[in-house]
## 1
Amino acid sequence: MANEIKFILNGQEQVYDGNLAARLLDVLREKFNLTGTKSGCKEGECGACSVIIDGKLMNSCLIAMGRVDGSTILTIEGYSETERFLALSDAYESVSAVQCGFCTPGMILASESILSSNPHPSEEEVRIGISGNLCRCTGYNSIVKAIGIAAEKGSGLW
Amino acid sequence: MKPISKSIPKRDHLTKANGSAMYVCDYPTEDVLFGKLLRSGVPKANILNVKLPGLPEGYHYIDKNDVPGTNQVAIVLKDTPVFAESTVEHIGDPIGMIVGPNEHEVNRLLNETKIEYKELEPVFDVKKSDVVFFDYNYEKGDIEKAFIEADKIFEEEFETGLQEHMYLETNGLIADYSNGKIHIHGSIQCPYFVHDAVVHAMGIKHEDVSVAQDTMGGGFGGKEDHPSVMACQAAVAAYKLKKSVRIIYDRKEDVEATSKRHPSFCHYKVAVKDNHITGMQINVLYDAGAYTTLSPVVLQRGIIGACGIYNVPNLKVHGQARKTNTVPSGAFRGFGAPQTFFAVEMMMTHIAKDLGIDPVEFKLKHVSKQGELTSTSGKFHEPVPIPSMIDRVIKASDYYKKKEKYEKSTRLKSTHTKRYRRGIGLSAVYHGGGFTGNGERDLIKAVVKLKKDPIGNVEILTAITDMGQGINTVFAKIVSQELNLPIDRIIINYPDTSKVPNSGPTVASRSVMIVGELLRKAAAKLKEDWIDGREQIIEEHYKHPEFLIPFDLSTFYGDAYPSYSWAVNAVEVEIDTYTGCIDVIGAWGSFDVGTPIDENIVIGQMEGGFLQSIGYGMMEKMTAVNGRIRNNTFSDYIIPTAVDVPNMHVMLHVEDYSHGPYGAKGAGELPHVGGAPAVIDAIQNALGVTLNKTPFLAEDVMDVLRRQKSNG
């Protein structure tokens, strides 16, 4: 196939020969059945579809498949197999920071993105770091608190 | 705090955190047909013709002619059609649906479908509408006498706008067909509402329908009535085609076609004698949109709360919900109360300012006390903790010092040359728990069940949905505590109407207070009758508390609610006079929901609701131009992010309710009542003006500043 691309998805190499203008979000959900990546707006506003591409937090609804050739993509399904996930998940759980849960996979990947570049962020840095991820349930306080707890208890992981 | 308040891990935590929880959009789509609605593009018209493109094999058009029962969606009334009969009443009114195996193809066919209309004159201005859906009146005392004897009479009108729920997960559901039976599952706040609506529209037997809730991405009232409409449409298609049919909205369709908070105008005329309010005459007008949906109940709650938390001896209240040719208004956290509480809280501050009295002192002088009459001549049977809650919020926020400082500075000329101005505001509100009046006794008649298996695990069976608010965890805690069983022996799943009794809808802040108490009683009975090794089923039915003064809906007389939850909110803002931008620099809230069954969960509810309410005050503006919603995405309907209210402090005050489980009262809606009036009060404090509308945005600030400038 002329238009074949390759990328690493959650640690495994994948070959894709479908529509290269398709949204990464749709391909993840429909072709790879990775439905932990949520669709909230399809215009890059809500962050529910956040994934990590080559170490950076991205809205997968705004990424065309053609752009991920050669990239390494991490979704919540892959991330939830890591120790860092466990530290974040425990922290979120301890303050009940998950309500409806629709923003949560994206929010957890945003948390990872903050801590991987800044293992001991200030509260303000945390708030800015998740400001691209909308949550309509919590008011954000518990999420901010959870990221602080993960940073402290998971010290050394990041 | 009682031991039960100590937080435990939420039951749905891990599956939501690791992405494995199944929302309706996550179900496989092989062998499922996609349904997409053909909607009216005009606000009012007769439909002359629907011209379909050639439909490929496997693609179908469904409309009113396919409805096997009655082309009505049973909500409170039955005026909402499943598909338009011969007229359309708002932009987005569903006319038909294209159904087929490929979503893109369905969209293409929909785009190529042409509708011919004969357009009719629409009504957009609720004040000019002559279609009155609901009209209620009540009074106590002698309002005429109060006006005659008054030293001073204050009159003012208040306006509130549309508010959109913006749950992260849009509305969606799937209808499955099998051997003449319909099964609906999806993002459904009230499964039995949907069940009854599908039975009515399909004309099939009650037992041939089942409705189940999937994991839900938020509701806030926005999935209370609308799923009934979608379920009827999907059921009609599934029944005709004998296949599963899925309807999931994209964001724009969800915003344009589903219900929102009622816009309102509230007119207040207030009699004051010796610096004390002696009477209020209040006219409330809610814009119901094109169909009645939940407007009667929303309006009832609105007018019952019209005099706020204050003891007003002479009161006359008139409320109307009128039709306009816009998307129907419906349920949204607070359910009619945020509008009137906004109005009365602003009114109180304006009168206090005119009389030269501090607004908080003025409010405190009028707060109802235990044993005093409510607006509807019921009684505040239990303590009213507002004074001590105000005290706590004032201390936490340093209210008086800031208020005085900011107020003084607005009177100094030098302030008017400074870029930033600050203000602080305070509101005090209540929310009545449970259905209004005798609703719980006469309409809902809640039933719950506990089912013990031979091993000794106990399953909770209710119709209450966990949309994220944490009710499954809370119910499990109540039953575990009462039975003295470890929490992991308690089973609770999302409800399916084929398995659970009808314990009523998940609305009105009733889940813990009403259904939770039924579960507690059932668990107490099970404990008493416990027989090892045997299956046992305990059923518990709602009983109306005997202490209540019966409520008469025709006169609005009696106890409208069995118990009241209370909130005091303070908000501090900083306004940039160059740009008009309003920054919330602090928010404090004291909330009394009785004993919290889980402290984290209750705090999460308070923080989330408080932020929505602040959004309603200074951010979330939605406009309809000629009946068309202009702000239909997250890009132009702005909800708060994590940086918008960085300093929010929630405190819990505990005043137990005698008939709630372990003293718990209603919680979910309370935090959405007082945020907006506190924000607007802060803005008026910063600008040195009186304000009468919400939301209030940067452009409104600029208007005020321009006026101040031109007035010198």
## 2
Amino acid sequence: MNGTTGPENYLIALFDGAGAFWTALVVALGVGALHAVAPGHGKSVTAAYLIGTHGRYRDALRLGVVVALMHTVSVLALALAWVGLSSAAAVGTKAVTAWLQVVAGVVVIGVGAHLTYRHLRRRKAHQRGHGHGHGHGHGHGHGHGHGHGHGHELLEDPWSRRGLTALALSGGLVPSPSAFIVLVSGLLTGRSLDAVVLVLAFGVGMAVTLTAVGIVTVSGAAVLSRRTPRLGPLRTVAAWMPALAGVAVAVGGCLYLATAVTALTP
Amino acid sequence: MTLPLITRLRAPLTALATALALVPATVPAMVPAMVAPAHAAAVAHPFGPPSTARIAADGSRVTLTWLPAEDDWVALGRSVGAFEDPAAGADTTLTGEQKLARSAAVRDYLLARIGVTQDGRPCAGELAPLERLLAQGARFSFECPEPVSAVDVRISALADLHEAYRTMLTADTPAEPAQALLTAAADTRRLRFDPSAAGGVPLAVPVIALVAALGALAAFLLRRRRRGPAPLPESARGHADVRG
């Protein structure tokens, strides 16, 4: 658990000072949104995935909702264990958090590797079938989000959805330090309900940011793909986009994993 | 307890705090170059889990163990200058933990900021040697004037560095409250040691919230799966995407 900002500090101070609850609620919403801007939560990873799988707006929304819910679950579970099993508190949330991050990193790497593998396999099959698979059909197909050639294949591929869900779950797995502190403080000072509501608001704030990132990604990809057929070299890039995105996702997972391992190393 | 060099090289930012604590005094030469990251790390510390403290009463004696996280010890040691002791400056054989344990400033700091009073009268505090402070924490023993029933416990260590620092106090002998939070804003709490005191803080609300959040998550994921991905016609899908 590291990394924080002034606003997160402000939220904690506000909660400590027992100021107006509504102010704290609004601040929690904003801090959640800001928190999701900070590194982590798989923003870039999910953006890459959305590009690689030609995600849709509803995928972006789904991403936000799942991350927010998962984060709420994660913070609640960790805070409950920390306060409720106070003898276990000494074991340290640092190790728990780091292990959660290991899990998240492995999941992300797996999703990225799978995305790349799927694309390469499909590409191979595609080339075998058509001989010269680099013609209009191919470029256009990718450009419009899997048109004609293999559009249906991807659309019906449950792995695209499962991959996104896995990324979203791993994105929300590692609890935010300030949300954790607010919840623990609330539990110990008899303000459980207030704290739980603030953590929920925090999650909603995160969802807003992540959904917004997803929407920008999806529309950006759509704009790009409409122009792609006219820009020759970009066609090749577009054709390889899912594989590149898969590699990017896996690399993101590796970074995530490396951070966790660093935290676990004494 | 020396830290492998490779750890420092692998993640200079996150490992900085630990490295400063654990690596012998070759490090100070690097410090000026790392002022900014060091500051960032110091700011990040309080947002880890709160420190923990356990308290017990027996007759007129109160024992208290305060256990902050490792990087919080670093922040504490740095704030009182435990790592820059000129006498030990050239000594590269001491680990950060040993420097902390030997520092009179650390002991003074702890004794000044962690205390127990009974009816307004301070209980005489004693701090056990800090040799294994990372594992055992700071172990205090307070001798109060009278047999202990109600005492005021004050823990303001670290809170002077950043108001997000806090300590969860847990009573090992039955007390009311059984658990309390000590913060910069409220660093003192009255504990009433009473064999009939019920332990624990009410956790019903967060438990219900956890179940509800898990349920919502499961419902959301399963609903989508049941409905399944709707295979739209390709042309419709591509354009729908663009327009939203």
